[in-house]
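>> received
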Amino acid sequence: MRSTIFLAASAPAACVLANPMIERNTANQTHVGNSPTGYTMGFKNPSVQSSVGGHATCISGMVDVRASANNTRIKLEEPANQTAVTELVVEALQINSTIGTRLIGSQNHVSGTYEIYSQLCFPSNTGTINATTIQFLIHGIGFDRNYWNVAPGYSYIDYAAEQGYTTFSYDRLGTGLSDHPDPIQIVQIQLQLAIGHQLVQLLRTGGISNHKFEHVVGVGHSFGSLQVNGLTTQYPDDFDAAILTGFSADNSGMPVAFAGTDLTIASQNQPLRFSGLSNGYLTSAAIEGNQFFFFRAPEFDPAVLDLAESVKQTISLGEFLTTAVLFTAKSFTGPIDVVNGENDLPNCFGNCLLPVNKAAAVKAALYPAASNESSWYLAPHTGHGLNFHYTANAAYEHILNFIKKNGF
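>> returned
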């Protein structure tokens, strides 16, 4: 039975979950003059909102990020139609695929200034930023920054604010309200890492909110965790601690998980939301594919699945073709925390305890120098989209306890 109570409560949340082609709902926004002096620094055209549960005050707006990276030249033109997209996905996922040798070319240096839609949230009960520690939240594929602020009772931003923490989240390049450049040559993992690094530097140096944050804790989900993994490898001083949700060193379940989503051209699947986007931006074909990749019954409210489908986001072909490699963060010495749903499909093939505990195995496999204060947690009966399940708040409790235990 669908929860009418939840649907009523989550309706405002659905309005503010952003997508690139429609304007934001401004019903819960207040004038920036109501925010403390200086907090809007670094944001263009800032606005102020409450988090979905009301426990955080959030400043949102565009942040200009200058970044460069050595991407990969992909020998592929924009797909002409859905038939071409489906064939590409089939060939990429088949055994002994030759996609890598046929399409992956030489290094391709890219650079530019990108508008990244960002949000800084601090506890409403104090009305001030915790200037010592900020949590840097990176969402995964299929959603935007609002994965961290889904609906009342399903908001990591609310939970963190209740514990006194400030958070920073953003729409990754090619998602939400951020810029949508060439999805094949530009929107790739290496440029995403460079943008993430520049944002962290802005937070540490006072370029955002006029505060110099002493400690930055990286928190990722899925592809966002891969970015945390990459940042701790390429820029080991960016984060004091790393929290990797929806992540493992074994991605053998990825082909099955992606096959189940039936990737489709986003502008054709959601013409009102993604009109004008290149055919190189894809999304899941239907709600069943969304459930297949992210959810595990019966540990979720069907209304949450409906909400997730209504606000789903895109994946670029550049990301799809360049994200197979995990990073070994040999120089990162901070603590890590790996937090998964026990039945995560893409990262555990549906069982994170077989043949070994895949959350616990990440430290030895990818973080050989990480602190002995590292930890792991498996949410029972839970799929890949941790924040969409009834178990979300128990996972949040574990994460916040981990952060506090390590002195941040």
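>> The longest strand covers residues 104-123.
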